[in-house]
Amino acid sequence: MTLAAQEREPARWVRVVAPVAVGVIMFALWVLIVDVLKIAPRALPSPFAVAGELVTHADIILEDMGITATNALIGLAAGAIVAIVAAGLAATFRPIDGMLAPLVAAIAVVPIVAITPILNTMFGASSQFGRVSIAALAAFVPVFINVLRGLRQTRPVHRDLLRASGASGSQTFRFLTLPTALPYLVTGLRVASSLAVIAALVAEYFGGPADGIGTAIAGYAKSGKAALAFAYVVGGVAIGLAFFLVTLLLEWLVTRRRPT
Questions:
Q1: Predicted model pTM
Q2: Does residue 8 lie within any of the structural domains?
Q3: Long-range CB pairs of 31-36, under 8 A, 24+ apart, other chains included
Q4: C-beta separation of 183 from 255 below 8 A
């Protein structure tokens, strides 16, 4: 990294303190509007009431969090594997690239709320497969696009140099293509992880088995238990943050070991 880039890069403590400060400010405004000024809408509970519901119903919230996290994780893994294979085929064979391009574009613009009820009905009200499928579709596109881009970053001169040195196709992939594409893969996984959690929550909201964070939010919000519904929202946020932080750590480890 150049000196000018280092000067533009914010200090490490700033990157940690800034989001914490935003969270504290938002919490203070929440308390001010609900508990002090009492001008909040009826459906917005006090943060202290939400905290009380989190403590009281911690066991069932954690159980539903486990179901949602499992659906999102399986969907993320399945979508990523299919995306990696598809990107490898598209990068190797131009006709396959031409066939996959419109399909990926179609998947990217299909609204989740439109196909979720269809898949939940198709696979039955007692099956989690519809929810997992939605999460997999959401994860597929960013992983495919990033991996395909990474596989195309290798320069012909580098491949020719390895071939001239007697490297086999597998050796070229191991020592050139894979190290080049790996940072793009983890970046795609970081984006896809958040999308998979969101997709799993939306899928639960629109039907399927009577469990999971999304189902609980919909049920308690409709029954007027706003504080408990918000407690489940906190659980969903915790899942999303956990997925994001794990993939962010993975991305940092990969880019840290990559030679500049």
A1: 0.85
A2: no
A3: none
A4: yes
